[in-house]
Amino acid sequence: xxxxxxxxxxxxIDLHGRQLGLIGLGKIGTMMARxxxxxxxxxxxWSPNLTPERAASAGVRMVTKDALLETSDFVSIHLVLAPSxxxxxxxxxxxxxxxxxxxxxxxxxxxxxxxALVRAxxxxxxxxxxxxVFDIEPLPPDHPLxxxxxxxxxxxxxxxxxxxxxxxxxxxxxxxxAWLRGAPIRRLR
Length: 189
Known about the structure:
The chain is α/β, with parallel strands linked by helices. It folds into 2 domains: 19-158, NAD(P)-binding Rossmann-like Domain (Rossmann fold); 159-189. The chain has 7 helices and 7 strands, in the order βαβαβαβαβαβαβα. Strands 3-2-1-4-5-6-7 form a 7-stranded parallel beta sheet, with helices on both faces. Helix 1 links the parallel strand 1 and strand 2 (42-46). The chain is globular. The protein starts with 18 loop residues before the first strand and ends in a 9-residue tail after the last helix. 29% of the residues are buried. The model has no long low-confidence stretch (mean pLDDT 93).
């Protein structure tokens, strides 16, 4: 209100009865499915390695990537960045989404083709995007994503919290101490 002034100048979007499409159903995707359920949303999921059993255990329906994009009101990305996920969501995928859908990416920017990501809300292929990750961080002041009225951009702060940092740094110290003792406790697989 300090900068924009008006009070109640927009209408919110209902969540109840809407569909959340989860691209990735790991730890965070599964938590998102629970949140969706609490709001009365249907959740569907797709990822390259998702199984019907895993989807069922998270309480979601497994669908194809195309079906997820074509039927979801919200598409939320929860994948790790790997050679197989880089550019996974391209122009064709964004055009496949509903015109009223919102794309949410708090995972890794390169999973989505960045040029197409700018064009999608700009040319209203989709209703908008909520982004916490970018191809260039910090996002330059003149970047087009900063000026689009249908893009909510946050400065990669989704993971920044006292508890998260406490856990992160505590585990880092534990890892170093264990390694120095010759008994590593967390190993990359």
